[in-house]
Amino acid sequence: MSRWSEKMQVSERVCSIPEALSIHVNELVYEQKRRGVDVTVLSLGEAFFDIPQFDFSRLDFVKGYHYSDSRGIPELRAKICRFYSEHYSASVDPSREIIVSAGSKPIIFFSMQSTLNPGDKVLIHEPGWLSYQEQARLVGAIPEFIPYDCDSSCFSRYFDSKTRMVVINNPNNPAGKIYSSAELLAIYNQCRSNGIWLLVDEAYSDFVVNDEFHSMAKLVPDKDGVIVVNSLSKNMGMSGWRVGYVISDANLSYQLQKINQHVITCAPTILQYYMAEYFDEVISITLPQVRMMVEKRARISQLMSDIELTHLQGGATFYFMVSIGDFPGTSLDFCLELLFNHQIAVVPGSAYGQSTSRFVRVGIGTESEERIHDALLVMKDLTNARTLSAALVKQRLEESGLHHLEPLMQK
């Protein structure tokens, strides 16, 4: 027993935010697998690509032991900017308009820190990746939401005097929506005319076909009022390396650089040199696999239509937002029933916004089409269920040693 009678203070702001619901679901999956349960995992937010290990001996490994340029090593910045030019027709100055850091998650947080004051509002177009709202709260801002079915020309209906940022994910995780150039410009013009930053997360920029993707860095060449975030995680299948980047105008880039210096110092040096050396080779290997994933998505989409499993329209990424139909419980109840009774893992749609609370997120990046096919048939049957297995779910949760997820749901 502690000799101190009073508990030490912890931050009220941090205590007020929930865990990442998608990660918590996967913790349940890992626990089930440790018990020997064969789970069809449709809850992971990544695709598994076949990427060879390139020769580290070609790198200056001694440099990798030390700090590097806080903006990112010049060689890697140049490669990324060339990629944006060649693939997206976007001109980016590698010396003034890009910062490479330890993943896009901290970069989004830094962007909010650099542009928002306590009490400012952040608008998120649903379905919105679940960390956007919590990062806004962590910087003292107030997250609010635009329903998924709101037309891009009408975003300004949700603006008020405290709105300072709009966040969109293009292509969208989890619906797969691709914003057209007209939609992007409509959103941007509404934002810029009201002095509101537009943050565009382009993490899934290559999960498209037929040149449907349009980077905001191309549409607004001077980057005025625009923050573009991307990473090596999804497009290049390297989520574990935590290397991301942000494109913005020179002034905001400088502000971001200061935060990066104080919090991160630099992205992992040896991984930056590795990517600078092998960037073109990795792209040549992963892009065809990205295209194969998009084709797989199209086949799965057709299957859902064939079995009349309703899902939001979209043509990109490796996710779907699937309706739970007339299921008598919440999307969280649906996920727990699916996991504990049918050994299938998905993520509640309520994690991505109120307007998608009757959906679940289905990720197809890690399982075979055969297993996905079987899982979708089970999901279709569950949408027509009339009763809940609450007692069994409670028992399984207690056995797992993990608490119920209800406190984690969106505020």
Mean pLDDT score: 90
H/E element order:
HHEHHEHEHEEHEHEEHHEHEEEHH
Radius of gyration: 22 Å
User: What structural class should be given to the helix and strand makeup?
Assistant: alpha/beta
* β-strand amount: 5-15%
Cα end-to-end separation: 35 Å
Largest sheet: 7 strands, mixed
**Low-pLDDT ranges:** 407-411
Number of strands: 12
**Biggest β-sheet: strands ordered side by side in the sheet:** 2-8-7-6-5-3-4
Q: Characterize the overall form.
A: globular
Helix content: 25-40%
Continuous helix count: 13
Walk me through this protein's architecture.
The protein has helices spanning 12-15, 21-34, 61-64, 74-88, 104-115, 131-138, 181-193, 216-219, 250-263, 269-306, 331-342, 369-383, 390-400; strands at residues 40-41, 98-101, 121-125, 142-146, 163-169, 197-201, 226-231, 244-247, 319-323, 344-345, 347-348, 359-363. It is an alpha/beta fold. Strand 3 (121-125), helix 6 and strand 4 (142-146) form a beta-alpha-beta unit. Helix 4 runs parallel beside helix 10, helix 5 packs across helix 9 and helix 11 packs across helix 13. The longest helix is centred in the C-terminal third of the chain and has 38 residues, at 269-306.
Key words describing this protein structure:
411 residues; alpha/beta; seven-stranded mixed sheet; three-stranded antiparallel sheet; 40% helix; disordered C terminus
